[in-house]
Design goal:
By secondary structure, the chain is mainly α. The protein is built from 18 helices and no strands. Helix 2 (12-24) packs antiparallel against helix 7.
Length: 397
């Protein structure tokens, strides 16, 4: 851990850039949107399955747009690219707060998913992955701390402000907070130094990567983990209520997930730098699988705490590991285009998670059955990734 201090001292602005983008990507992440699900269902009079379908459609649209436009980060000026992304996220946050008709909801969700979960994360991890070769793991770990910070800050902020201001004004405050902090910070960062390698990157989406053997072996887990994780966090307040857990209590203990993710996000960086991301890829899923199993076999409140802690371990390690594994497998050239394809499929998985859970729940399937099935499917998705490092050099397109 001591290696982080000199690294931060030597690279304060790149780290502030990466951290701030991942922090405010929270506004488009599932855990944040899930905080508004009970209010949206109540005010708009829509069902779980309908909302899940809207969410899926918006997220699929986000993944398609990301595949089409994500490669532009390799050859367009970064400052303009970032400012447009921040502006779109702010506008989408405001629109969600103003939704008064169900037809407005998919538009707001599309903007949030594309600009927040999609582009903000894509920009941060792509820029740092190609800017650093030595120390890439530490850079990505520090950047990934923004996810953890967001998961600690925003649920508490929403829990405190909603009883006072209402959920709509709370959403407005979140959007204004992002603009008020992020724009002044970005003006002080020399983003021109982080532009892609001029003249070498492809100006077309990297569709050829879908034929790569390593990509195909990583694809199932790249879809299944976000599908399962998104669905569970999306309906967390619903199943907490069904189990008799106080929603305020659960919102407060959600901070334990953020703290654990923060700690293991820091642990993951040096592990990547010393062992390599490929060797760690399958192993780091084990804690969240255990946490999902616990939710499936018991309704006791302690299982909620255990799940959040174990999920924090896996998703904390996941930040630097998943970002670095793409660079290790495919190289740094055209990294933005390659990451856009990976991210698009990941976002595709997040689209179907809430919709699938919603359909099963409306059909009478219990959360316990869904949790046990999810753990099994996640384990099966990891089997193709075992031993992937042996074939990396021969599999690159």
């Amino acid at each position: 851990m001591k290696t982080y201090y000199p690294f931060l001292r030597a690279n304060p602005k790149p780290m502030a850039f990466g951290f701030s983008l991942t922090l405010f990507s929270s506004l488009g992440q599932t855990f944040f949107i899930s905080l508004y699900v009970p209010w949206l269902l109540q005010d708009l009079g829509i069902s779980n399955s309908l909302f899940g379908s809207m969410y899926a459609g918006a997220t699929i649209g986000s993944s398609i747009i990301l595949m089409a436009l994500g490669h532009q980060i390799d050859h367009l000026p970064l400052r303009s690219y970032v400012y447009k992304t921040v502006g779109l996220l702010a506008a989408s946050t405001l629109l969600l707060s103003l939704v008064v008709h169900p037809l407005m909801l998919p538009i707001a969700l599309l903007g949030l998913r594309f600009s927040g979960q999609g582009l903000m994360t894509h920009i941060s991890q792509t820029v740092l992955s190609r800017y650093y070769e030595e120390g890439r793991g530490k850079a990505l770990s520090i950047s990934s701390l923004g996810f953890s910070a967001g998961e600690m800050i925003f649920p508490l902020l929403v829990a405190v402000l909603t009883p006072i201001l209402g959920w709509r004004m709370t959403g407005v405050v979140n959007g204004l907070l992002m603009v008020g902090i992020l724009y002044p910070l970005l003006r002080s960062i020399p983003m021109e130094d982080y532009n892609g390698p001029a003249g070498t990157a492809s100006k077309k989406p990297q569709w050829g990567i879908v034929k790569d053997r390593s990509f195909l072996r990583l694809l199932p887990s790249n879809i299944v983990l976000p599908l399962v994780n998104t669905a569970i966090f999306f309906y967390q307040l619903i199943f907490a209520g069904q189990r008799g857990w106080d929603p305020t209590w659960y919102s407060l203990i959600f901070a334990s997930y953020g703290i654990t993710r923060l700690i293991f996000g820091l642990v993951g960086g040096p592990m990547v730098d010393s062992l390599g991301a490929i060797k760690l890829y399958a192993i780091h899923h084990a804690p969240i699988v255990l946490g999902i199993l616990l939710l499936g076999v018991s309704k006791a409140p302690w299982t909620g705490v255990a799940f959040l802690l174990l999920a924090g371990i896996s998703l904390g390690l996941s930040g630097p590991i998943k970002a670095a594994v793409i660079a290790e497998v495919h190289g740094a050239e055209n990294l933005g285009g390659n990451r856009a394809v990976y991210t698009a499929f990941m976002v595709f998985g997040t689209a179907f998670g809430p919709m699938i859970f919603g359909l099963f729940l409306d059909g009478g399937i219990t959360f316990e059955v869904l949790f046990l099935a999810s753990a099994l499917i996640l384990v099966l998705s990891l089997l193709p990734t075992l031993g992937i490092g042996r074939n990396v050099k021969n599999s690159r397109v």
